[in-house]
Amino acid sequence: MKLGYARIFVKDFDAMVKFYRDTLELPPLWHDDANGHAGFNTGDCTLILERGDGKGDGNGNRFTALSFTTAYIEGRWKELEAKQVQFTQPPTKMPWGGTLAYFRDPEGNTHGLVGEM
Fold it and tell me: Is the pLDDT of residue 24 over 70?
């Protein structure tokens, strides 16, 4: 078994699509504004954004945390900081041997940037 899709339920669909497409530069697979969902290629897993109003529809206000891997974490960290991405932790060597940084998307979800080992 492998992870095929990761879904983030969002309030501001347009802002979140722009962040993942333009700031993180994930290649879009589809964008359905009318139904409020978009998909992005991340390699082995497709990232899906789905509009949720957070008003009891079962989709809003869920906790989401994704980890994006990169071969050049220091360089990617600097690129994203230059694009005003808010990091809560700069690249830090972890006890398990890898390097990890944390950043927030426009809706406050905290995600990881992991240096490939």
Answer: yes
The number of distinct structural domains making up the chain is 2
pTM here? 0.78
Please compute the mean of the pLDDT values over residues 71-85 and round it to a whole number. 95
90 and 116, same domain (yes or no): yes
Q: Where are the beta strands (DSSP E) in 1-117?
A: 5-10, 28-32, 37-41, 46-51, 67-70, 86-93, 99-104, 110-115
Residue range of the domain that includes 43: 1-53
pLDDT digits (tens, 9 = 90+) for 84-97: 999 999 999 988 88
- The Cα 117–Cα 79 span in angstroms is 20
Q: Do 49 and 82 fall into the same domain? A: no
